[in-house]
Fold:
Amino acid sequence: MPRFTFVTVDVFTDRRFGGNPLAVFPDAEGMSDPDMQALAAEFNLSETTFVLPPSDKANTARVRIFNRKAEMPFAGHPNVGTGWVLAGLGRAKGGMLRFEEIAGLVEVRADSDQVTIAAPQPLSLGPEMPVELLAGCIGIDAADVVVKNHRPVSASVGNSFVVAEVAGAALTKAVPDIARFREAAASYTTMGPNRLPLYLYAHDGGRLRARMFSPLSGTVEDPATGSAATPLTALLLSLGKEAEGRYEIAQGVEMGRPSRLLCTARRGADGIRATVGGGCVPVLKGEISL
Structure:
């Protein structure tokens, strides 16, 4: 039976058992799609990544990302963690890696203390989500959803989330109601009936605090969500006239896994592009026979 090695890392943190855990298979050639999905379900983490040879030799690897139930076109902490693992294996060239993914090419910079990824697509916005519908999903009052700058809206830079600003106290007390999520997904069908990730944020002095709930895809709450932080920061930049912006986002605090995400957004010829970066800490290593 073929054997495959794996490692796990905690992403967007500088300490073990903080941040968002990730499993990485750095050499997954020969695995079948069902194998990958079964392993992602077995690890039971937000995502697991599988590294394959690139289709274009100018790139570092083809990276496939699976959550507990399905393959994903792009995700944040899986790219940051996979970049950290592959850089440690000597696969970075001049500190850079390039990952082929469903959503497009993801460029990764691995520095000594941080890995930063560039989202593969510029900001795109989809339909707004009714305030009452969103509030019901997370057990808060509709009045606690802040609509001064923007209403809850589907936003993507490679992976879609409903992004909404809420009052700080409401962010802390939010609790997902899975039955309401199912009802909302049936009527708000932008992302399909089995996927409705809600990314909530509040201003907290000079930084942002955030929480992400996606119970229909198996992640009741996520400790750090780079693919949601990037469209959020791009959306915030779009609300003003600045050429670029820098944002620090704290997430995972309510889960006991504090995370720190460092984001940028910049206006470009094709729209607003965003990056997200943070630290990684190794946790486990092992192998599996299939």
